[in-house]
Amino acid sequence: MPLLGIRFVNSRKTRFLRDRCVLNTVVVGAQWGDEGKGKIIDVLAQRADVVVRYQGGNNAGHTVVKACGEFVLHLIPSGIFHKNVHCVIGNGVVVDPQALMAEVNGLEKRGIRVRGRLHISDRAHLIFPYHRIYDRLREDKKGFIKIGTTGRGIGPSYGDKALRSGIRMIDLYEPKVFAAKLKKALLEKNEIFRKIYSFKGFSFKKIYAEYQAYARVMRPFVCDTALFLHEAIAKKKRILFEGAQGTHLDVDHGTYPFVTSSHVTAGGASTGSGIPPYAVTNVIGVVKAYTTRVGEGPFPTEFDETLMDRVRKKGKEFGATTGRPRRCGWFDAVLVSYSCRINGIREIAVTKLDVLDDLPEIKICVGYRYQGKLYRHFPASLSVQTEGTPVYEKFPGWMQDTSAVCRFSALPENAKRYLKRLSDLLSVPITILSVGSHEEQTLYIR
Question: Looking at CB atoms within 10 Å, which of 111, 134, 175, 184 has the fewest?
Fold first, then answer.
């Protein structure tokens, strides 16, 4: 009987990638982010025409290792390294112009052409200096729940969007509209800063001039990206949709309130880019062979400090955006099964298998026990998530280096058994396996 319900072969890479990119595919993290989506998107983008970011802001960090060095992307989609691929920042993204242009200039200085290939939605909302300050002041205010925000202003920008007081990219190109919106925003924000946080507030003239300057340099990138994507779909172009964070940071489906402020799940690809739901025909979920998260919030399978330090060092588990050390733990099949259901995940990409190479025993969480009840499905209850005791299945480690393995059949038997059990628990086939950060350290499974 074939392992994982499919036949594992070292497929011809070109055929594999072609098959994955014929469809309009969403690539979404199935844990708390940092699963290695940047690498997987970069690999799949070799046979794509367009790559789209549909949510989040520069609080995301996708690391891509190329022959010319390591790159960390925050706003620009990971398809930018392929010269024939167009990259789109959709309407569901919040854009900090300062961070965006620094990223554009940094890539071009390293020989990656961005101009003429990057398209930014004119409906995307903007991040302003007062969003960044408010983010930090609110996080530090006593009595508030500490979320572990990056302090980049993402949440406050989405908050203004929901309150219908946000400022969009298109507003920059209508000076009267922009001036009126900015004055109203500062009238409210400066009052809050002075009375609640004893912060002096912001100057209208300074921000207005600064953002008019950004408007000029961003002008070549800004367009109706929904129209661009509809035309691409009509021409049967191959489109990849890139989630910025992991499913369990989704504002609706994540471990609320320890979440981000946008719709991370596959459904967000439609609302965050302007394409109809029926246009998405495949969803690939990306998971680590273990689990990590950054910031505050529940983490049922978190390691003890000794194992945490060991795995963190080997896996280089430090945030690409903030540099903060990531919390690490065993693979949580309850957590990921929930992601598979709500995203409609049809394939799994597993990353960082090699980090587990020297562990004598490996565990998979298959349930939580709380107040005498066994939970097999991921609960909404923060109490169960925080205080529940994980129920584990245990597996012998393989104690062999997998980082140089180039075909599935060459993996240690215990590694194969571990992967088979993951696939069985998730009821989803594993089609991509990463055993290192470089593109060559990738197994394609048909």
Answer: 111
